[in-house]
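Troubleshooting log. The previous run stalled partway through. Resubmitting the same six chains, unchanged.
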Amino acid sequence: MYLTIYLLHVSVLINGLVCKDPKVVTENDFFTSGLNVAGDTSKNLVGSNVTTVNVGRIPGLNTLGISLVRIDFAPWGINAPHTHPRATEILTIIKGTLRVGFVTSNTENRHITKVLNEGDVFVFPEGLIHYQQNIGHDNAVVIAALSSQNPGVITIANAVFGANPDISADILAKAFQLNENTVKQLQARF
Amino acid sequence: MYLTIYLLHVSVLINGLVCKDPKVVTENDFFTSGLNVAGDTSKNLVGSNVTTVNVGRIPGLNTLGISLVRIDFAPWGINAPHTHPRATEILTIIKGTLRVGFVTSNTENRHITKVLNEGDVFVFPEGLIHYQQNIGHDNAVVIAALSSQNPGVITIANAVFGANPDISADILAKAFQLNENTVKQLQARF
Amino acid sequence: MYLTIYLLHVSVLINGLVCKDPKVVTENDFFTSGLNVAGDTSKNLVGSNVTTVNVGRIPGLNTLGISLVRIDFAPWGINAPHTHPRATEILTIIKGTLRVGFVTSNTENRHITKVLNEGDVFVFPEGLIHYQQNIGHDNAVVIAALSSQNPGVITIANAVFGANPDISADILAKAFQLNENTVKQLQARF
Amino acid sequence: MYLTIYLLHVSVLINGLVCKDPKVVTENDFFTSGLNVAGDTSKNLVGSNVTTVNVGRIPGLNTLGISLVRIDFAPWGINAPHTHPRATEILTIIKGTLRVGFVTSNTENRHITKVLNEGDVFVFPEGLIHYQQNIGHDNAVVIAALSSQNPGVITIANAVFGANPDISADILAKAFQLNENTVKQLQARF
Amino acid sequence: MYLTIYLLHVSVLINGLVCKDPKVVTENDFFTSGLNVAGDTSKNLVGSNVTTVNVGRIPGLNTLGISLVRIDFAPWGINAPHTHPRATEILTIIKGTLRVGFVTSNTENRHITKVLNEGDVFVFPEGLIHYQQNIGHDNAVVIAALSSQNPGVITIANAVFGANPDISADILAKAFQLNENTVKQLQARF
Amino acid sequence: MYLTIYLLHVSVLINGLVCKDPKVVTENDFFTSGLNVAGDTSKNLVGSNVTTVNVGRIPGLNTLGISLVRIDFAPWGINAPHTHPRATEILTIIKGTLRVGFVTSNTENRHITKVLNEGDVFVFPEGLIHYQQNIGHDNAVVIAALSSQNPGVITIANAVFGANPDISADILAKAFQLNENTVKQLQARF
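Second attempt completed without errors. Output:
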């Protein structure tokens, strides 16, 4: 027997997130605030901070394939090499001067890099390792868009040396041509 | 017989645009500049100007499913009701105060609207009619991202009353409940 | 702790609609009737009527990316300019003579139009504004297919002038180059 | 060196078909005629005829994911069991009475079947084996839509027993539990 | 009113299968064993056995678009002509010598076939009828991958002659150019 | 003017690769050999070798979304941490015992790991960093499938420390919490 119970009182998780009935959405399901507020770049070692506006913050983005971030940089701060497993990124410089770059796949591993100033725009194709570095003496600000409502971020150093539990040190030693003690020291830091 | 000629000297149009061999791309295929420059809002009747950064301007965006725009508004300028036939839009207010809104499909035609200030973010789902209006006394600036490298824009009034050649006036009269003379006057303006 | 409760007695909404367990579907989940019945064209001002066969009427269409409509036209009736935000449409004339057309995106706004007779077929690409007009002296009938199980319909005049609540009259006045009183009169009609 | 030659004088094949520059398309790229003309059902053994309106006939359909067919049936004619490798089909009966059916995948192989009359609509999900049979005393006519501009058709008996060159008779004998002589007779017929 | 109940204790079916909260997945959601074990080829008439590793066996595959199978063949065993309605297949021969083939769509019905030995690789495009036959004197083993987590299998003879309930014998007689008694005998066997 | 030249004698690059006219494909467009041959694991520092069977080797795979690899491991060899920017991977152990693992996205960076023996199967979701390590005393062999005809590979250490030209050492020093001299030594090695 197949009995339909109208789901008036439960939320279903699609992509791990709540999907509302279209008839009860309001303007607040398509809205968030605060992208004018600088992220705190003093709380980590790399001098940058990413403020994320994805489907976790705007429920109405679910299934629509787009999201935004603001990235703040202290002088000489970096957004460390990372990938988005499910998105291409396009950014524009709101303030400051940055060196940006990405690296192509094997076996070329070409480093495509450029210095960007205010109003410049750059693209990081889906899944490729990329970074930004503030090379000016002041704070820098970037707005970037990603081609997924849930793009994901893999910060390479953290995922490799800060995985929980640790990846076996002998694997990383061989992969990075480091000795195991150095690997273990790195793992202790991340 | 099937003869392969290596296409060293021609460009193939994919989606109507040139696709380069990946091995010869450079940083300039992923780059453009000028998004810090305010568009001229004095050249049209609606007091706004959209600066588009899509695949036509950054060849490396082709097939990657994302693009950017900057929109400038004179005081009380509007970005007239329009759709993007192939993209969802997410915008953030860089400067100013805007009323924004979109209208849901038939038969509800719900008007989802909100006043946005600096740092606020709003989403316009794919294909729905939407607009922005500067409701402040100064210029306003928006950065928006779209979920296609070639999202397209259909400005409703222009497409309806400014189609070339004209849509028959009796159709528009009936659709908009206007008399045919009014329609013809509108068509003369667009 | 992760506890699996078999969902024997609830229906989950996918795309806002019920998805059945494949093992309990029957022929009736893939079926509907009544597309031979002319829609009533006398109940509205435009002299046409669209009978929709989408996933709301055939549950088995969910995720399959296709649906049908029948459109009936009184003599000189129109299917007013509209878009489908999520579908291309292909139609064939079962009976009668119609003028049909669509308008391309900015900035060309080319009006692609043709007179169609019985057995003629025409395509309206995804998201573009299009219309049909019966230009014969008898009723006309069309069968059309859409490339989504839930294509959506945005009747331009209704969404613009009949949004609920109203779009601010000054926005529409500026967009359509009408005075605000005319806009308010239009809004009162829709 | 990378030299761009504008392709003013060549057509590029996308999906094996010509793609025009959007700026030079005309209404005839979105049009065909003749779907009111009954196909000749007397030229084959199964008493049916499919008139196809796909991207091969309407160039503007390319990439848009939809197409149409008209199917004519002599009394007791059948549209033999077949699949569309790249499309779901939805049909409506214009005239006549048909038995239609599809078979679900292994291991159930459920036969989902129904008798349809004028105005009835039925769905055949992508890739499943399906058929139609005119069970009335007059001709029958169907209009069907498919969720691809190039859906493909695999008539099961023809592909199995009429492949060119033949599939080895011992394979078909084992698969269909026939003796090899019967298989060879069948292969001679197709 | 819209009340969110966190679904801590229920599993939602996506594509008819359970989707776990990403935070509670473990290595066992991405794992299965046993693909080294030969399937029993003696339990059916065709002398082959397919061991399937799809989303039904590895829950973590859901939405990821890939799966594996192992196929064992007795000497002269066949994997009877079949299609995968939602996947392309690529296989490699682990052991033995097989003839493989697929048939292209109407109207060519070209039979693309080749004899494969250990280490050879072959592709069967999505939705096309294909088969494998062990033409050696020993057992043969194949590993194949499919481009869907839930590709489906339609064994042609079983779906046609073993559908439940039967497809009407007169339809199959006409389609396969057999007499109805032969069809009924076949239906009795499947 | 629009002139069609039939492209009888040129090959068009789709995704950077040649696409043949479907009417002239042969069995060799869907075939390759050699996956039974062990890759040479002695030519690099990590003791593994990947033999790739993608669209570059089988032209008929283009657009079909799947490919295969064989991976050979010397005793204690590793397939160093890497990502596939456009594919999920599913592997099965043909011979040997391996530890495998992947790391989830920020901010959890969970290390999902398992020891696999012959016949075991494991999944690495799209874009996530993963590795395999032979933990046995003999050679090990893996067959893996990827959900793209052109999945790409980014070996993390090579892309980070072996990019060409180098990524600035101060960026990598900060990202990996190494001193710049260590970074430069690493860059010299890769």
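Takeaways: Residues 180-189 of chain D form the longest helix (10 residues). Chain D is about 15% helix and 35% strand.
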